[in-house]
Input
Amino acid sequence: MSKFGERRIIEDRLIEIVERAANRSGRKSRPLKLGIGDDAALFLPKPSHETILTCDWFLEGIHFLLDKHPADAIGWKCLARALSDVAAMGGQPACFLLSLALPKKLIDRWLKGFIGGLTRAARKFHCPLAGGDMTRRADTLINVTVVGEIAAGQAALRSGASPGDVIFVSGRLGLAELGLQLLRSQRTTKSGNSKDSWLQKHLYPEPRLHLGQSLTEKHLVTAMMDLSDGLSSDLTRLCSASRVGARIATEKLPTAQIAGLKALLPKFDQLDIALHGGDDYELLFTVPRNKSRKIPKSFQGVPLTEVGEITSQRKLLLVDSNGKERPLIAEGWDPFSHVRKRSTKK
Amino acid sequence: MSKFGERRIIEDRLIEIVERAANRSGRKSRPLKLGIGDDAALFLPKPSHETILTCDWFLEGIHFLLDKHPADAIGWKCLARALSDVAAMGGQPACFLLSLALPKKLIDRWLKGFIGGLTRAARKFHCPLAGGDMTRRADTLINVTVVGEIAAGQAALRSGASPGDVIFVSGRLGLAELGLQLLRSQRTTKSGNSKDSWLQKHLYPEPRLHLGQSLTEKHLVTAMMDLSDGLSSDLTRLCSASRVGARIATEKLPTAQIAGLKALLPKFDQLDIALHGGDDYELLFTVPRNKSRKIPKSFQGVPLTEVGEITSQRKLLLVDSNGKERPLIAEGWDPFSHVRKRSTKK
Output
């Protein structure tokens, strides 16, 4: 009886924490007819809108390290990165489902931190927790399904780029990778309070939802996706879906400008990290040449940079300031190796 | 380069297999605007319908055993059990997302078997694969999100039961648990070809979608849920959501009638298994007394059995044929222990 009683207490505690989180995540502000506590959640879709569906693994040892990443950041990031897929379609978040498996020892303090970060992200991005599935396991496993909405026919796809289109990226590329390397090098603590922009970018990425919505509403983009695995890998996917190639001007790339970087991480190269670093959750998009001047230099403080153009020749090329070309090879995050392959240097 | 090349081949192979599966799962027959291959899937909801959202873990070592369960059955069951939640609301399936993490050694033969079972279930229940997330990991992890639809306001909830309502269950209770015990006792092989009804029920459960739809369309039920963790646990949840109690007549319970059961599994008790066995994926529903005669004895070959009544006193009681009462304690599947607690015998 005592073992059984203990189990019930653990389960009740978890459900209580998650239900409270659901309420704190702004559930009542959205068209959720039913949240946690029944067989399924019920959601009232907007008329004349399509539903956007995306799910993302966030697994201990692959996507985060329990001894390096603050619980609060794990909670924030597991939702933020799934929301980045909604941003990439130009959509608005509607709600999300959380599947969580975790060891008993994490159910108290760690879970509070996790739920704290998760609910902050849910409120900030207007995406309430609608339901989920919980179980206990030796390692910590997270899966997030995000539901979004977009006016029918307006979603930005990967497949719409045409030769001559101008390629843009938002933000500065490689900051999140630098943050990861800093965490790994143990020059920083697990506190999660650092104000360093690179660490913030790695721990608390901000999905570019407003930017994605603005670009699609104004019909400015022909193709769009988010940068999750590094520009070299993600541009390869966009070009493959659109059956085109691309030329990227290396000197135009918005690399991370960090004073003292060489001293901190002597082995890292800014261009290399900008091309192949993952987890930036910025947007990569293509714009017809005759509309490209309508793209502002920045949007809500985030720089928007022209980095190259789409070509009919199905190759990805890097062009340096002297006009010298070399192939751009997809060397970003690979879900089947769990490592980032270092690029071969020039 | 060779290692990188190998990784690309593995990834390409997996995506190819899953994309083919998506096409074979009946994708084109449903309002899926976009499936696998973009940042997210796009789905066109039916006007005047609510969207049903549910997600389910299906994890190696907790929900299935790689050395006991055929890959085909794992593929079938991970979708069927999530669809059971849609059945429990009275809804129709629309599409699903698959998150899969698996070791490299399973990518060939095992994955083919898994995808085979998964696509058979997807076609049978008209629920095409819309997207997902894949990664490699030492152990096999599955998470399925199912999206369903139901006419606005018609969903059957757990919370609607009132004192005096008659309690029904579909099917015979405990068959799936017997199947699991048989698999565990190693009296059967991993072939998955057995025609034993208990093994079939454990390996290839059928979500009661048509029954759920019929009951809600005819406005016959006040509350409904699926039986996934055992009657004792699930009835506790229904009563808790409805703020009521229940009396169950033991002699009315549709136990598994298996000739020679005692010889095969001498330790198991039919009543015990009917009350506490999990994985049946039958429906538990309550019907106002004045409508209970409208419930047929069976529906599409599945028996529907009156097993008790809802009470205002918030207790769960078992009543034997002599009118003797004893408490019914929730002792089914507990996600925080991963075992079924044996009930204390009478």
Notes: The first strand of chain A starts at residue 32 and ends at 34.
